[in-house]
From TrEMBL:
Pfam families: MATH_2
Xref: InterPro entries: MATH/TRAF_dom (IPR002083), TRAF-like (IPR008974)
Record domain MATH: where: 21-156, 179-306
Protein name: MATH domain-containing protein
Organism, as annotated: Citrullus colocynthis
PANTHER family noted in UniProt: ANKYRIN REPEAT-CONTAINING PROTEIN-RELATED, TRAF-LIKE FAMILY PROTEIN
Domain of life from the UniProt record: Eukaryota
CDD domains: MATH
Length: 316
């Protein structure tokens, strides 16, 4: 799922996630030639998210005007604004990705408090002047640059938009969110013959949820890992523009040592993105070992904590 690492400085959050970027990826071959040829700025092709067009902007040697020396600078820029109405403003939360090709996961960087950023005529670009240091990026053991190839990505979620005569949405953040926990005891685990199985539906933050487990893995974890997810129970019931920002923790209990294996991530749920979790939550070889305590008398116990922090709804 995700190993959370935070950097409170500058309110930037950095963590590792198994979940790939939902909206766009950029693969760069012969990356060193960008530096050799003094390419100061590279702009990706346009992609669409949230009804708008965007592009990634990369400074391979750092954005010198923003004190990005010895770092890679990475930004999200809004594109195609000539077609927007006058006095447009778009409020966005986003995260930017860098693929670790050795471990098949992503260094993910976002604003620490997920404060919406205001894109407008005078400010069409937001991002990170010091996305990653060149030293860390070039270190072969980190897997970010392999055979001179690297992969960046982006997710973009529109929270609110404003322009004369237009439509928008309202993002309501919850001042004192309540954390809801659901415990699921799965018996006769070895006899599960379906690709996946689901818990009973539980409530959290005015929404219905469920836990979904793939006993023999899904996606990149198929055949080698147990995959575990939290999902909206009825995403089709949501308005297409509704988004739910929630902090999710998944746990697999160690029934022998009173411990647990866990992962935590923050995610924007919607009708089109209804679930989050870990394709490679735990190795099946570890899960099945009796001394690990995850599977005892053919019973495993999983937990999900869901903390709904904000909800965005459309308005006219």
């Amino acid at each position: 799922m995700a190993n959370l690492m935070s950097d409170d400085m500058d309110e930037i959050s950095r963590y590792v996630s198994d979940v790939p970027p939902a909206h766009y990826t950029v693969k760069i071959e012969s990356f060193s030639l960008l530096m050799k040829n003094s390419v100061d700025r590279f702009e990706s092709g346009e992609f669409e998210a949230g009804g708008y067009k965007w592009k990634l902007v990369l400074h391979p040697l750092g954005n010198k005007g923003k004190n990005g020396n010895d770092h890679i600078s990475l930004y999200l820029a809004i594109a195609g604004t000539d077609s927007l109405q006058p006095s447009w403003e778009v409020f966005v939360v986003y995260r930017l990705f860098l693929l670790d090709q050795k471990n098949d996961n992503y260094l993910t960087v976002e604003d620490g408090k997920w404060k919406p950023r205001r894109f407008r005529g005078m400010k069409k670009e937001w991002g990170f002047d010091k996305y990653i240091s060149l030293k860390e990026f070039n270190e072969s053991s980190n897997g970010y640059l392999v055979d001179d190839v690297c992969v960046f990505g982006a997710e973009v979620f529109v929270c609110k938009e404003h322009f004369k005569g237009g439509k928008g949405e309202c993002l309501s953040m919850i001042k004192s969110p309540i954390t809801y926990k659901h415990i699921w005891k799965i018996e006769n685990f070895s006899k599960l013959d379906a690709e996946s199985c689901e818990s009973k539906i539980f409530n959290a933050g005015d929404q219905k949820w469920k836990i979904r487990v793939y006993p023999t893995g899904r996606g990149s974890g198929e055949g080698s890992h147990l995959s575990l997810f939290v999902a909206l129970a009825d995403p089709a019931a949501l308005h297409p523009a509704t988004k739910i920002y929630a902090e999710v923790t998944l746990r697999l209990q160690d029934q022998v040592h009173s411990k647990h294996h866990s992962g935590k991530v923050s995610y924007w749920f919607s009708a089109s993105n209804p679930e989050v979790g870990g394709f490679r939550f735990v190795l099946l070889s570890n899960f099945r070992q009796p001394n690990m305590g995850y599977l005892v008398r053919d019973i495993c116990i999983v937990e999900a904590e869901v903390n709904v922090i904000g909800v965005a709804n459309a308005f006219s």
